[in-house]
Amino acid sequence: MKNGTPRKARQVRLVANGDLRLSANQKCWPEQRKMEAALAQALRAEGWSVDRAHPFDKNKRHGFIDSQKMGIEVFRSIDPGVPLIVAESVWQYSQHILPGLFTHRGPILTVANWSGTWPGLVGMLNLNGSLTKMGMKYSTLWSENFADRMFRAGLRQWLTEGRVTHDQSHVRDLSLLKLPSADEQFGQRAARVFRQAKAIMGVFDEGCMGMHNAIIPDELLNPTGVFKERLSQSALYAEMLRVPDSEAAAVYDWLKKRGMRFVLGLDEATELTESQVLQQCKMYIAAVRAADEFGCATIGIQYQQGLKDLAPASDLVEGLLNNLDRPPVRCPKTGRILFAGEAIPHFNEVDECAGLDGIATYRLWRELGFAPENTLHDLRWGQHYRGDGVNDYVWVFLISGAAPPAHFIGGYKGARSERQPPMYFRLGGGTVKGVSKPGHIVWSRVFIMDGKLHCDLGVARVVELPQRETERRWRETTPQWPIMHAVLEGITRDQMMARHKSNHIQVVYAPNQKQAHRACRIKAAMLAELGLEVHLCGNVEL
């Protein structure tokens, strides 16, 4: 094997990175154990064995690396020249293992099970994006059962060559293409206006959920015309405490009058309560006022670490912020309505790559005269679906509740708020749950590679599946969260997985298919003029 790996043992070391939250690691451990057993069997079939670099912890009742401190300790016992597999069937905090991976010189393979049960695919994509940002060499594979032809061939290649090659022929560099002049000029003009106007990105506690790939260094961000205002979630919480109960109740009443349903109960530990919803309404008001005070065009609330110990989840807040039609919030000093008639684009989990994308998209779609509501989703999972007028590979785009009601079938009337899963959200809080309406979207992802900002862009169809299939897909993933059934145009499942450098994908609707292609071209020209390396993916018409 290459890279100086000893041949004598024909053995790989394995690490399993996990969540920072004990409850999540315990809940997800059975799926990880099952996945590792199948992976070990695949390795044995190739004549190799696997040596787990850290044991199951009987006290914690899981076998994940659950902190950066532990990760550094584990990697001290790993020969930096050996072949190493990072096996993921859960969400993982990349900072736990990045220090060890950064100094590893042997071949690295990230592996995930193709399952929606827990977000292992999402975790692996986050790790891949983080390694890409760090300039680290790695290979990646995924499988439903670790016995299919693609996985076995890829594993064999990695074991013999130290790398896995994937088909990425769907990616075209914009620098090698010729856009229609009208679209190019529109995008370039929009970029110049955007850069000249400048925008402030409000960042509530930078660095969330181990998403190293989600932090844009200022020297890369500022040339686009966007500048960070680093804010504290403690200040947001303090502002929540100043919001009168009457104002929170007014927001809650506004939502109910719009037809949004809240699935309420009495048990704070397992059900959504009215008290939790009212706390979220206070957070919404506090966030809008903070954005106004600091002049933020876009904001990102971390929540998962920090606010989670003080307040219910922020996802209801995030979905409302991303919507043009939302409860009015008044300045406490002057009484004027803040951001009247505008959304305040929110980048979930403080994913600054999504924040840059979101505000640029919002302003461009405004100029195009299109509905500007946009959001990120997790690239969670997918399966082929045949029937009811659909015969395509249909992805499950899913996020923890931050999607705007404007994206849903029925708008607010099609939106429900359900309690977040207790294993992630101890203090509860509701989501903004709905099914995304059929139509045409532009998808994108800003990421960092080779020390530069890049963006992949493409077009997709959102299809409407039967209710029974939607419910099945929800049961296979997280039923409390909003869902989008997406068909990527001209991109296979494996091409998308091989290329995508993030757990998140940004989506925005266009009026029709023709306009989706046009808007994608214009957005590509805009981002290129802002200095990003742009790549068109799949069947984007030129």
CATH class of the largest domain, please? Answer: Alpha Beta
CATH superfamily grouping of the largest domain: L-fucose Isomerase, Chain A, domain 2
Q: From the alpha carbons, calculate the radius of gyration and give it in angstroms.
A: 23 Å
The domain count comes to 2
Strand sequence of the main sheet, in spatial order? 11-12-16-15-14-17
| Poorly predicted residue ranges | 1-7
Could you explain the architecture of this structure?
This protein is α/β, with parallel strands linked by helices and 542 residues long. Strands 11-12-16-15-14-17 form a 6-stranded antiparallel beta barrel, surrounded by 4 helices. A 5-stranded parallel beta sheet has the order 2-1-3-4-5. The protein has a 3-stranded parallel beta sheet with strand order 8-7-10, with helices on both faces. The radius of gyration is 23 Å and the shape is globular. It is 35% helix and 21% strand. The protein folds into 2 domains: 11-161, Rossmann fold, CATH 3.40.50.10940; 181-537, L-fucose Isomerase, Chain A, domain 2 (3-Layer(aba) Sandwich). The protein starts with 10 loop residues before the first strand and ends in a 5-residue tail after the last strand. It contains 15 helices and 18 strands. Mean pLDDT is 96; it is low at 1-7.
